[in-house]
UniProtKB/TrEMBL annotation, chain A:
Domain Heme-copper oxidase subunit III family profile: 28-219
Location(s) in or outside the cell: Cell membrane; Membrane
Bilayer topology: Multi-pass membrane protein
Entry's transmembrane regions: 31-54, 66-87, 99-117, 154-181, 193-217
Organism, scientific name: Alloalcanivorax venustensis ISO4
Protein name from the UniProt record: Cytochrome c oxidase subunit III
SUPFAM superfamilies, sorted: Cytochrome c oxidase subunit III-like
InterPro entries: Cyt_c/ubiquinol_Oxase_su3, Cyt_c_oxidase-like_su3, Cyt_c_oxidase_su3-like_sf, Cyt_c_oxidase_su3_a-hlx
Chief localization: membrane
Automatic annotation (TrEMBL), chain B:
Transmembrane parts of this sequence: 12-33, 39-59, 66-88
NCBIfam families: caa3_sub_IV (TIGR02229)
Full protein name: Caa(3)-type oxidase subunit IV
Record keywords: Membrane, Transmembrane, Transmembrane helix
Length: 219, 93
């Protein structure tokens, strides 16, 4: 396992014997948190799968109205941000402050670009009358608009939940940026960046599944 | 970490990133082909491979402690229970 070096400069929390033990506990804690997050999204995907099975034709027709190419480009942006945060972790492990700052900044910029494009996509769907709330007339022209509305409810709920996680991830990365800028203890910064990177990679994983299930399955 | 090792790790990350882009492109291109009943299993399988690549490499699951690996596998098991038991009921009504 890649571990931060320069351990002598780090204060180990009193309940741990070594920095390694503390690092392992931090990682385990983050993984356990991500398991709960995975179960949260699983519930949403399960409900989507059940209704997809029941109303396959309607859900497929509704999915074809989504901007799959724009969302595909957004997937490229998010995967690139995943690479950037992995490189930030590597730079932090090597105690290269400037490089860590650069890769963290790139990750944040790509994350903001993703959210901007997602917002634009929501705007286009709003203009097309595909938002089944906000007191807007539902303008879906395909078959069975009542159940198509159900698909768009799933779409906005799941992508909205993902966007919320993106915003939280961006805030965490901004804190990492400040901590890296201050660079008080190299090993501690490396550990914190690694844990923040885990969360960001999880957000990547969720998007891969969101893109496949909402945009591609019905095509 | 030596410079050689650093470069090797960086190249590995970039290689996996290119692989992920390739899988994404394949999944998108797959929508242009009529694969019939196989379309959904294929798309889900490609997405599952992408998830495994991200989890094992970018989240460094392969290099993590055995305890973390057990936690990750158990979460997958619980999610499988969720899907299998729900569909076992739903599809046999």
């Amino acid at each position: 396992m890649t571990r931060p070096n320069n351990q002598t400069t780090v204060i180990v929390a009193h309940q741990f014997e070594t920095l390694e033990q503390q690092f392992d506990a931090d990682l385990l804690g983050m993984w356990l948190f991500l398991v709960t997050e995975a179960l949260l999204f699983s519930g949403a995907f399960l409900a989507l799968a059940v209704y997809y099975h029941q109303y396959y034709d309607t859900f497929s027709a509704a999915a074809r109205e989504l901007h799959w190419l724009l969302a595909g480009f957004n997937s490229v942006i998010l995967l690139t941000s995943g690479l950037a945060v992995a490189l930030a972790e590597q730079a932090a492990d090597q105690h290269r402050r400037r490089l860590t700052l650069w890769w963290l900044s790139a990750t944040i910029a790509l994350g903001v670009a993703f959210l901007g494009l997602k917002g634009y996509e929501y705007y286009m769907e709003y203009r097309a009358g595909l938002v089944p709330f906000l007191d807007q007339p539902f303008a879906f022209s395909g078959p069975d608009p009542h159940n198509a509305m159900l698909f768009y409810n799933f779409y906005f709920a799941i992508t909205g939940l993902h966007a919320l996680h993106m915003i939280i991830g961006l805030m965490v990365l901004l804190v990492m940026l400040v901590l890296t800028y201050r660079w008080r203890e190299g090993a501690r910064v490396a550990r914190q960046v690694r844990i923040a990177g885990l969360y960001w990679a999880f957000v990547d994983i969720v998007w891969v599944l969101v893109y496949c299930s909402l945009y591609l399955l019905g095509r | 970490m030596s410079d050689d090792n650093e470069t090797r790790v960086r190249h590995r990350f970039v290689g996996l990133y290119v692989l992920l882009l390739g899988l994404l492109g394949a999944n998108m291109a797959g929508t242009l082909i009529d694969a019939g009943g196989l379309a959904i299993p294929i798309r889900l399988s490609v997405a599952a491979v992408m998830v495994v690549v991200i989890a094992t490499s970018f989240m460094r699951l392969r290099q993590s402690s055995a305890l973390v690996q057990v936690v990750a596998v158990m979460s997958l098991l619980w999610i499988m229970f969720l899907f299998v038991l729900t569909f076992a009921d739903f599809l046999t009504r």
